Amino acid sequence: MPWRAWAGYILKNSSPEMKTRELARSILTDLHFWLPAAVLALGAGLLFLIARA
Amino acid sequence: MSDRHLHSLGVFCGFAAGAWLGAAEAPAKLVITGFSPFLISLGMVAGVFVARWTIPMALKGTGFVLLDIRQKPHLIVWAILAGALWAVANTLTVFAIRDVGLSVAFPLWNTNSLIGLLWGWWLFGELRGAGRNQSVRVVAGAAAIVVGACLLAFATASAPALGQRAAASGIAAALGAGVLWGTMYIPYRKAYISGMNPLSFITVFTFGELGTVLLLALAFEGGGHRLASEIARARPGLFWLFLGGFCWVIGDLFQNYAVKYIGIGRGIPLSNTNQLWGLAWGALVFGETSGKSILPVAAGSLIMAGGAWAISSAAAPEREIDAWSKAAERERARYGFDPRRAGLTSDRTRRRWWEFAVLAAAMGVFAWLASNAKRQPIAIDEAWAGMIVVASVGLLLVGAGMLWKRTRFG
User: Which terminus of chain B has a smaller tally of CB atoms within 10 A, N or C?
Assistant: First the structure.
């Protein structure tokens, strides 16, 4: 699966000092990730409503 | 290099971004009628994607970009997120223009600079320790640019007759686009305080952008077959959309350098002076303001220029730079990289033969579309168009020269 290869690449090539799970946890607990992701989800929802109206 | 030199470089990049982002609107005007919002958005984004493989790749080469991404691979997530935010916001603006007209829609989505200012202050320490004088200049300058944009938009565009439902959906679309674009600067700033090069960030960004807009077009245009036939129908106008995308790539690169060197709070309002350039294209080249009062146009332009001056004179003092450094330190501690790590050496910027082949193929796409393009039935003042193009190219050359001399496009 390409997405698995991509995720593996990200996790493997990050800082050598960081462990894989630690990096994933760092991303998933980062407000800098969730804030834009939440705004994107809301924007996509709004677009869906407007386009279907 | 001194902080003052970097500030002046960032300010210049902000102004150059305004010129090229304004120029990106001009070709799109030629094909705005008769096509769905998704198709217009897809055409521009495809142009952005192809243009990405021309000038920016020629500047640094793929080897440099790949190594830069490899050193901070977690930022791939944010670059794709930023591309998706841009694509959804851009599609929302097309709906907003359709439903409430540019005069209402533009001021609403132009609030993106205020949203960016909020995120910059909250998440990245911008304006922290700046002192009252500098903070007031930046906030008042950003507000003045929004007010100036409102005046210009009301003066130069006419709103369609609105149904209540269309008005509500158009206003929601424009406000939504403003919030999405303002939020898109979070990934930008995050990448640059981590030491990533804008050329690397934009490379990944375009994948997120093209993937999202393709997904939207497939979902809302009724599948691949229908989309392909719509694209075939739009082919005579596709060159103009691609040209808009090309201008957008240059403008966005300057915008990224502005964000890198002076932050979101200062860089984004400056690049929002694109409205002045859009006005120049509309009024002088397309004759859109003929028969309309010149007073609000002059007032809007002066207010916007005053706001831009206020921001450009508000260089970040040492205490604010310290706050930026703390935000960068947070990234380093969280993701465990060293922003000063060596590795992006000159041999990585050496081009390989296949990079020139990709470059030639990208230029070939533009040439092929140009050979299929039909001149649109719109009157154009060619003398003014020539002068604005010369001014924009001049800004591009001076800006590129400054970036090369001071940072080697770093």
Answer: N
From chain A, pick out residues whose CB is under 8 angstroms from the CB of B190.
Answer: 32
CA separation (Å) from B61 to B201, B360, B393, B402? 14, 14, 22, 19
Q: Supply the pTM of this predicted model.
A: 0.81
- Residue from A22, A26, A28, A32 whose CB has the most chain B CBs within 10 Å, to mutate: A32
ipTM exceeding the 0.90 mark = no
Given an 8 Å threshold on Cβ–Cβ distance, is B123 in contact with A31?
yes
Give the whole-angstrom CA distance, residue B165 versus residue B91. Answer: 19
Structural domain tally of chain B? Answer: 1
Question: Which residue is closest to A36 within chain B, CA to CA?
Answer: B183
Distance between A4 CA and the closest CA of chain B, angstroms: 14
Closest CA to B197 of B127, B267, B137, B253: B253
Handedness of CA B278, B280, B283, B286 (dihedral sign): negative
DSSP string computed for A2-44: HHHHHHHHHHHHS-TTS-HHHHHHHHHT-HHHHHHHHHHHHHH
Q: pLDDT per position in chain B (410 positions), as tens?
A: 667 788 888 889 998 999 998 888 777 666 556 677 777 778 888 888 888 777 667 777 777 888 888 888 888 999 999 999 999 998 898 888 778 776 677 777 878 888 888 898 899 888 887 788 888 888 888 888 788 877 777 766 555 555 666 778 888 898 899 999 999 999 988 988 888 888 888 888 989 998 998 888 888 877 778 888 878 877 777 888 888 888 888 998 898 888 888 888 788 888 888 877 877 887 788 776 666 667 777 787 788 778 877 877 777 888 888 888 888 888 888 887 765 554 455 555 667 787 888 888 888 888 888 888 777 677 788 899 899 999 999 999 999 999 888 887 77
Q: Which residues of B touch A37 (CB under 8 A)?
A: 81
Report the chain A residue with the minimal C-alpha distance to residue B89: A43
AA letter at B255: Q
The two structure tokens encoding residue B159: 């709103």
For residue B361, the enclosing domain spans 3-407
